[in-house]
Amino acid sequence: MFLETLSSAILGLALAWAATRRLPHRLPARALVLPTGVAGAVFGALITHSALDAGGPLTVLSGAAIVSVASMSLLLRPAGRLRGRSATA
Questions:
Q1: Rounded to whole angstroms, how far apart are CA atoms 41 and 7?
Q2: Where is the chain membrane-spanning (predicted)?
Q3: For 65-75, how does the pLDDT look when each residue is reduced to its tens digit (9 = 90+)?
Q4: Which of 12, 53, 65, 84 could be a cystine partner for 38, CB 3.0 to 4.6 Å?
């Protein structure tokens, strides 16, 4: 279990680092994105390991990656400027 947790944390850190390198203009500060990726991966590994008791390490890491990416996607900002119409016009 310890090895799964450590490997999922490293996977989450790698995914978060890749996201900050690829989308720096759409994500907040790196100090927020990196821990979010790690925490999402560890939480995803815990959920996957609990749901599929003997699912295997590849399955656990897949669940960790999915939850990590999903949690980091909540930090994304819109790509362009929002152009809304005024309700008073």
A1: 9
A2: 31-52, 58-76
A3: 999 999 999 99
A4: 12
Sign of the alpha-carbon dihedral angle for 55, 58, 59, 64: positive
Model confidence over 10-46: pLDDT tens digits? 999 999 999 999 999 999 999 999 999 999 999 999 9
Q: What is the pTM of this model?
A: 0.83
Query: Any alpha helices (H) in 52-88, and if so which ranges?
Result: 57-73
Burial degree of 62 (CB within 10 A; 0-12, 13-18, 19+): middle
Read off the tokens for 58: 């590849």
Q: Are 10 and 3 in contact (CB under 8 A)?
A: no
